[in-house]
Structure formats: structure tokens, C-alpha cells
Write a structure and sequence with these properties.
The complex is a heterodimer. Chain A is α+β, with helices and mostly antiparallel strands. In chain A, 24% of the residues lie in helices and 36% in strands. Chain A has helices at 44-52, 94-98, 100-104, 111-124, 140-152, 170-187, 198-204, 222-227, 232-238; strands at residues 4-15, 18-29, 33-37, 59-64, 67-68, 79-82, 158-162, 190-195, 207-212, 215-220, 241-245, 247-249, 252-255, 258-261, 265-267, 272-276, 281-284, 293-303, 307-314, 319-325, 339-343, 350-353. Chain A is elongated and about 80 Å long. Chain B is built from 11 helices and no strands. The chains are: A alpha+beta, B mainly alpha.
Chain lengths: 357, 283
């Protein structure tokens, strides 16, 4: 715990009757990249704002570098914050934005020193030549860089990023992802990145913290989250699993697909059988499957670049998705409105149940 | 078909509107160029002259018509309007800033502030003078009691203007400044104020102009030394000469000059506001 950059203990935040954060406990080490993942309204932005000091929690403590900062005002915390809308100072130029904290904070730096550090940061984020532009005269990606550089000139130990890529187009988002990671690694700062996109969270974070309805429901590395989601909610939110309701009893799970053997199940508040999209196999309807199988009608396919997503509809209206990675060979093509059998290896299923150990 | 009837009708309406709005001023301007000192405030113009303008500045040979007793009153009014403008705008910005967060009793405080522009001016003036004379026992002056009534009257205008401006203000730029280690006061001076400056200008203009021609409150509250509107009203009771019209033209020109300065400053800061708006658009 000594190496923790920040630590939250039982932080609770309410807005009237709405509980935005419910007893959140979390700690982050030095030089880590943490992603907060959750649907909108899950409290991830509130959590970030509590850490930054923009919101006061009703209960719980916030520690930063071993110090209790729960009652410290935002400007004395030394925690950087990058806003989704960038929140650049519209009346200042690029270099004035980047030097703002050094110029107006209590640092006692000489003008020459401020100028040197601002220019250094401009180089780091690749904005050389734009120093004297107004912030309305640069592109979205460049504004993103100004927002980041403005925060990094203060050399914070912790930088909070609130959906920093949300305002950028898809192309730019991919590029900025890599840049964010590279800049962070060069400076050795802890980043906490809030995002609503599971791809972004899994791709960016050394550690992913999943939030739902104000609670932290899972925290772990990307592959831990991906391979062993802690609850049906996490699995659902990752948007990579076909989920079936049913009943778990002993080593058997019964659902629309019949009965499947279960080798391992996690405890949850309901019985759910989850199987990843890319673990599904499609058989002709006449075939005899050697495992659990669902009869479903092919609806449509979606080309995703590196894979193809096939959508099927089961008899109960439930949509089942099957992902085919193109690196594994050319895709089969399916006839619309034709029935197929969808099957999988039950060993690869993730099972949740009320009576699981 | 519709526009063939509707358009001339609306045009006629606008014509009437403009006539009522500017007609008096046009008449006033014409009469101000009446010949003097014999010419009176009536048509026809005997002979066009700038006599009454020179008369105001004491540049005419002495005649039976006394110069307008406005010199000192004008100075008083300008100083009073300036003081009122400064105090009301500062109060308006501060209180509107306070209203950005909900606080206990905010609704009551809101109505208490706004009451200042609702209550009849004569009552406020009379009440203030009674309060000063009979309750507190101080003398009434334009720079004390009248000043207080002017602030109570113009403060709500400044407050409402600033409330509207701050309502649309994106607070994340302030939070950004705090997260950069800049304290709230410096943040206000370096971020908030420059961005709300167009609103502050409007609030100042409101406060200044409302105070400059304030009559009912000043009537009772100003004591011995009169402000400009009172002094001018005082001259009506004797005999009306075109020098008042000449003076009216001059004050109107002054108002236009003030508006032009306001317009220029506004255009300068609107350019900044546009930048802010563009930044919000991409968000």
C-alpha cells in the first residue's frame, strides 16, 4: 500500500436520492494505466471528479501520495485532469494555455523558465509551430494535445482523463490512444482513463476497473476481465458474450440450448450461461452436434475489417452473435432466413449461478 | 397573396413605431436650432441658428434668459452614475456568481434582489428620505441617500444580466484552471472574468444609463443639491426655451457615443466568445 499513488476508501456520493458512488474502494500504484469502464450513469465520471476534488464525497476518504486529501481543494491537490470537451481557455493562445498553470499558480518560476518548460511540452506533444495560434485555429486532435500538454507541464503524479478521446473521430482516436500510452510511458505518470468503450478500456488499461450503478464490480488486468468476467453484468457490458438464461444445478446448466456440462461456475445473483462470440461454431441444421446447440435463423452479417460478425435469431427472439476472425480463413457464407445450428465447446463457457461455490 | 397584404401592413406598423420612437427627438432637434434669444419652442423656425447651443456654453451675450443651471448638476449626475455603475456591477457579478450554486434561501434572496427594480421609485425615494431624516437622523445627499436608492434600483438589472451570462458559462474551464494548481480567485480573474466580460459591459451600461436619468427616487432622496434630471425639470416650471432642446440633443449624442464605445468593446469580446462557442461545438 505504500507505493499507492492514490487510494479510495468507501467513497460514497449522492445527488439527492441518486447514489452516484456507492462505497467505492480502490487503489492505484505508481506508473500505472488504469481504465474506468462503465455504461453512462455508472458513476465513473463522478469517481474521477471526486479524486480531482471537483466533488465532495458524503462518506469515505481519498488519499493521494499517502496524504488524506478528502478536504483539500482541487487547486492544492496537484492532480491533473483532462476534460472530454478539452476545456481549453478560449481567450488564450496555445502556448498560453500550456503555460497557464505555471504562470498563474504559486511556483515562483521565472518567465524564461515557464517559456522553456512550455516549449518543451509543445515539442513532446508535437505542436511545434502552433505556439501562437488561438485554440480555435487548430484541429480537434491538436486541441486534445493542448489539453494534455497543459496538464503535463505541471508534472503531476496522477492524471485523470475523462473520456479524452470521445470528441475525436475514429481515425484520430486510434492514433491518440497510442500517443497517450507513449507519452505516459515516457513520463512515468499514473493515468486514470474513463471511457464508455470496452475496446478502449481493454486496449489502454494495464488495469481495468468496471463500474455499474455506482459500484466497482470488477478490477483486474484486461485479459482477466475479458476471460473471467466477475459477474453477468460485466460480461454483458464487455459486449463480447452471448448470454443465455437458464438454471444451474450441480454440474449441469439447462437453457434453450439443452443441457450442457459445467466444469466451473462463479457465484452470481442469477443463473447465466455466457459464451464468447468468437467461440461459436455454425453447423448446417441437419448436422448432429457433439455439444450444446441452438437452432437459429441467420439474419445478417457485418464486416468489421479483421473479422465478420454474423447475427442469428433464436426461436425466442434472442439475437445470437458469431464472430469469425478472417485470419482463421475465409468466412462461410450463410443464407438469410435459413436455419442453422449454433454450437460451442462447453469447456469455453463462463457460467454464473446462484448455487455456485 | 398573403405577403401582398401583410407586408405593407407590417411595414406601416414599423413606420409608426419608428415615428413614435424617434419623432419627438426629431422635433426636439429641429427646434434646438431656433433663432435666439427671441425664438421660442415653436414652429415655424424663424431662422436657423446655433444660438441655443452657444447659450448652453455661455458663449452668447447676456440676455434676459438665464443660462441652464446644469453645469454642476451634470457633474453630479455623471459622478453618481459612475459610482452606481461600479458598485452595482460589482455587486451584480458577485451575487450572480453566488447563485451558480444552489444555497439555502436562494429563492428568497433572488426575489429580494429583484424587488429593487419592481417597487415604485417614488416610494423608495420617499421611504429612503424618511428613513434618513427621521429614523437614522442623517442629512440627505445625492452621493449618500440618493446613491443608495440608485444602487438598489440598478443592482437587480446588473444581477439579471450576469445571471443570464453565467447560466450559459461552461464551468469546466474553471475546473481545468483549478486542476492546474491555480487558486479560485486567480481563476476568476484570468479565466472567468475575461470570458464573461461582454456581460459585464452590458451590466455596466444598464447601471450607468438607468442611474443617469433616474428621476423619482432621486427626487426625494437627493437633498439640497440636484442631479441633472431634477435640475432640468426645475427649469420647466419657469418658462421653456429651446436651450433645453439643445441640451437634450447634446445628451442624446453623448448616449450614442457611449453606445458606440459599448458596441466596439462588445465586438471585441464577442470574437472571444465565438471562440468559446466553437470549442463547445466540438464537445
Amino acid at each position: 500500500m505504500e507505493t499507492a499513488v492514490f487510494r479510495l476508501e468507501g467513497v460514497t456520493k449522492r445527488y439527492g436520492d441518486l447514489v452516484a458512488l456507492d462505497n467505492a474502494t480502490l487503489s492505484a500504484g505508481e506508473n500505472e494505466y488504469i481504465s474506468f469502464l462503465g455504461p453512462s450513469g455508472s458513476g465513473k465520471t463522478t469517481l474521477l471528479r471526486v479524486i480531482a476534488g471537483f466533488e465532495q464525497p458524503e462518506q469515505g476518504r481519498v488519499y493521494f501520495q499517502g496524504r488524506d486529501i478528502t478536504n483539500t481543494p482541487a487547486h492544492e491537490r496537484g492532480i491533473g485532469f483532462v476534460f472530454q470537451n478539452f476545456a481549453l481557455f478560449p481567450h488564450l493562445t496555445v502556448i498560453q494555455n500550456i503555460g497557464f498553470g505555471l504562470t498563474h499558480g504559486k511556483h515562483g518560476l521565472s518567465a524564461a523558465e515557464i517559456d522553456r518548460r512550455s516549449r518543451e511540452m509543445i515539442d513532446l506533444v508535437g505542436l511545434s509551430g502552433m505556439e501562437d495560434r488561438g485554440v480555435d485555429q487548430i484541429s480537434g486532435g491538436q486541441r486534445q494535445r493542448v489539453a494534455l500538454a497543459r496538464t503535463l507541464t505541471m508534472q503531476p503524479k496522477l492524471v485523470l482523463l475523462d473520456e479524452p478521446l470521445g470528441a475525436l473521430d475514429a481515425n484520430l482516436r486510434g492514433r491518440m490512444r497510442n500517443e497517450l500510452r507513449a507519452i505516459r510511458e515516457r513520463l512515468g505518470v499514473t493515468f486514470v482513463h474513463v471511457t464508455g468503450s470496452e475496446n478502449e478500456a481493454l486496449a489502454m488499461g494495464d488495469r481495468v476497473v468496471v463500474l455499474d450503478r455506482g459500484r466497482i464490480i470488477q478490477s483486474g488486468t484486461s485479459d482477466q476481465i475479458y476471460d473471467t468476467p466477475a459477474s453477468p453484468d460485466v460480461a454483458h457490458f464487455l459486449n463480447r458474450f452471448n448470454m443465455f438464461d437458464g438454471t444451474l444445478s450441480g454440474n449441469q446448466f439447462s437453457g434453450v440450448f439443452g443441457t450442457a456440462p459445467v466444469s466451473r461456475a462463479s457465484r452470481a445473483d442469477r443463473d447465466v450461461y455466457a459464451i464468447r462470440y468468437d467461440r461459436m461454431r455454425v453447423l448446417p441444421v441437419s448436422a448432429t452436434p457433439d455439444g450444446p446447440a441452438v437452432k437459429a435463423t441467420f439474419i445478417a452479417a457485418e464486416y468489421l475489417g479483421s473479422s465478420i460478425m454474423n447475427f442469428f435469431e433464436a426461436s425466442d427472439g434472442h439475437v445470437i452473435e458469431m464472430e469469425h476472425h478472417l485470419s482463421l480463413g475465409a468466412p462461410d457464407s450463410y443464407e438469410p432466413r435459413q436455419d442453422y445450428l449454433l454450437t460451442w465447446n462447453p469447456e469455453q463457457a463462463i457460467v454464473f449461478g446462484r448455487e455456485a461455490a | 397573396m398573403e405577403s401582398r397584404i401583410l407586408k405593407p401592413l407590417l411595414g406601416f406598423y414599423v413606420g409608426l413605431f419608428v415615428l413614435f420612437l424617434y419623432g419627438p427627438f426629431v422635433v426636439l432637434t429641429i427646434i434646438s436650432f431656433q433663432q435666439g434669444p427671441e425664438g421660442g419652442p415653436q414652429f415655424p423656425i424663424i431662422e436657423w441658428s446655433t444660438y441655443w447651443y452657444r447659450h448652453i456654453f455661455g458663449l452668447t451675450p447676456p440676455s434676459r434668459i438665464a443660462p441652464l443651471p446644469v453645469g454642476e448638476a451634470l457633474m453630479r449626475s455623471l459622478i453618481l452614475a459612475f459610482m452606481t455603475m461600479v458598485v452595482s456591477t460589482v455587486l451584480g457579478v458577485m451575487s450572480a456568481q453566488a447563485f451558480r450554486r444552489k444555497f439555502k434561501g436562494s429563492t428568497v434572496v433572488f426575489y429580494l434582489i429583484v424587488l429593487g427594480m419592481m417597487v415604485p421609485g417614488v416610494l423608495t425615494g420617499l421611504g429612503t428620505s424618511l428613513l434618513a431624516n427621521n429614523v437614522i437622523g442623517i442629512e440627505r445627499h445625492w452621493y449618500t441617500t440618493a446613491f443608495a436608492t440608485h444602487v438598489a434600483y440598478t443592482f437587480p438589472f446588473a444581477f439579471l444580466v450576469m445571471l443570464a451570462i453565467l447560466n450559459r458559462f461552461d464551468a469546466s474551464v474553471e475546473e481545468a484552471a483549478w486542476s492546474l494548481g491555480v487558486d479560485p480567485w486567480t481563476t476568476f480573474r484570468k479565466v472567468t472574468f475575461p470570458l464573461i466580460f461582454p456581460g459585464v459591459l452590458s451590466a455596466m451600461l444598464f447601471a450607468f444609463t438607468l442611474s443617469l436619468d433616474e428621476f423619482p427616487r432621486t427626487l426625494f432622496a437627493s437633498g439640497r443639491d440636484q442631479t441633472l434630471p431634477l435640475a432640468i425639470y426645475g427649469t420647466f416650471s419657469v418658462e421653456i426655451h429651446p436651450n433645453i432642446f439643445a441640451f437634450g440633443v447634446l445628451t442624446t449624442l453623448f448616449s450614442f457615443a457611449l453606445l458606440s464605445v459599448y458596441g466596439i468593446l462588445m465586438a471585441m469580446s464577442v470574437r472571444r466568445a465565438k471562440k468559446a462557442a466553437m470549442q463547445e461545438d466540438i464537445a
